[in-house]
UniProtKB/TrEMBL annotation:
Source organism (scientific name): Hoylesella buccalis ATCC 35310
Record protein name field: Outer membrane insertion signal domain protein
Pfam families: DUF3078
Length: 386
């Protein structure tokens, strides 16, 4: 009898260790009411197969909970049956991929710091440009042109140099030097084998402080004279010379930077309500010709001035440059309007049409043209820009 009891206990332990149907999971799952527990406890005969010692102990423990602590019951067998059978899990072999490290980008090794020479370049706010012409032309000059001259066929050389400063912080300083010198021969002139028909040196400097996008407070300086002596046909008298005259104007006002038609029309308009004009004549015999009292070499006055300087690039071949200058002291008025239409045939070959009307009521009135003077020429020749 004792041997049978030991065998029965051993069988129960083995069944616990080899539980493949999950019947002992009742001990670990949330408290559930099972119908077969009450059925097994109250039936008349015992089933030795199903009613093992461990099963009997387990069922009595659960029955005691049902009777004394029904509040612990969370589920019923009816609900479990409605959910269906629990799928059995399959043991899956986990395979490790040792090559996964190859898919990760290798960490770059940091190179050792190498000494580098640091070069600091100072920004260059200057912009330089210019152009030059050497041309042959047909020239027309009115008889009362203030620097003398003669209509004829001749040769002309012009050079324009620009040096402009812009620090991109509201400061601009534009400088332009224009030089023109033209010679002609005249069969009718028996005294001069060669004389000038165009002779001009003009320097324009404009310093501006930005007031808005295109407007600048401007201080402008304009100075002009000529290279050589000016003669007329069959006349030994000198009508103009270097520093005879020298015109200097200093003005204070506003300047507007023009940039229209997608950059095709560029330039500036300078309006100066306050202007100081100074004229110097070095040759004593020419002082009265330029509105200066005899015995003096200079005259100065105050007034207002207007200066418009524009370049309109119609195409790569056609360009129009114009300069309109006006000054008035409210006692005298001086105006001049230079126009140059350039047709560029090739990089080095072009033709120029030049028209230059001028008005100056400080000079002696001419019987034919009054205070107006005119100059015009048409030329073809070499050109170069940079």
């Amino acid at each position: 009898m004792q041997l049978d009891s030991l065998q029965k206990v051993n069988a129960s332990l083995n069944s616990l260790l080899n539980d493949k149907n999950g019947k002992y999971s009742r001990l670990f799952l949330p408290m559930t009411f099972y119908h077969n527990i009450s059925h097994n406890q109250f039936r008349l005969s015992e089933d030795p197969v199903t009613n093992s010692m461990f099963n009997e102990t387990l069922e009595r423990a659960l029955l005691r909970v049902y009777l004394k602590r029904p509040d612990l019951v969370r589920n019923t067998q009816t609900r479990l049956d409605a959910q269906g059978l629990v799928s059995t899990s399959q043991d899956a072999t986990i395979k490790t991929k040792t090559a996964i490290v190859e898919k990760v980008a290798p960490t770059p090794t940091e190179a050792l710091p190498v000494p580098v020479d640091v070069v600091i370049k100072k920004p260059n706010f200057w912009k330089f440009s210019g152009d030059g012409y050497l041309q042959f032309l047909q020239n027309y000059v009115s008889g009362n042109w203030y620097k003398a001259g003669e209509s004829n066929y001749s040769m002309l050389g012009t050079v324009t140099l620009n040096a402009n400063y812009n620090n991109k912080q509201k400061v601009k300083w534009d400088n332009k030097l224009e030089m023109k010198l033209g010679f002609q021969t005249s069969k009718s002139d028996t005294l001069h084998a060669l004389k000038t028909h165009t002779d001009d040196i003009r320097y324009t400097s404009s310093f501006g402080l930005q007031a808005s996008k295109r407007w600048y407070y401007s201080l402008q300086l304009i100075a002009n004279t000529q290279f050589m002596r000016g003669y007329r046909n069959n006349d030994e008298r000198v009508y103009s010379d270097f520093l005879s005259p020298l015109n200097v104007e200093l003005s204070l006002g506003m300047r507007y930077n023009v940039d229209w038609f997608k950059g095709k029309l560029k330039g500036n308009v300078n309006i100066a309500p306050f202007a100081y004009h100074y004229r110097y004549v070095g040759r004593e015999d020419l002082v009265t010709r330029f509105g200066i009292e005899k015995g003096k070499h200079y005259v100065d006055d105050y007034g207002s001035s207007l200066n418009i300087d524009l370049t309109w690039k119609f195409s790569d071949m056609v360009r129009w440059k114009t300069r309109l200058y006006g000054y008035t002291s409210y006692k005298r008025t001086e105006m001049e309007w230079e126009n140059t239409l350039t047709v560029q045939f090739t990089k080095y070959l072009s033709t120029n049409l030049y028209v230059y009307p001028r008005f100056d009521d400080s000079r002696k009135r001419d019987d034919h043209h009054g205070y107006f003077m005119y100059k015009e020429y048409l030329s073809v020749g070499l050109s170069y820009s940079f």
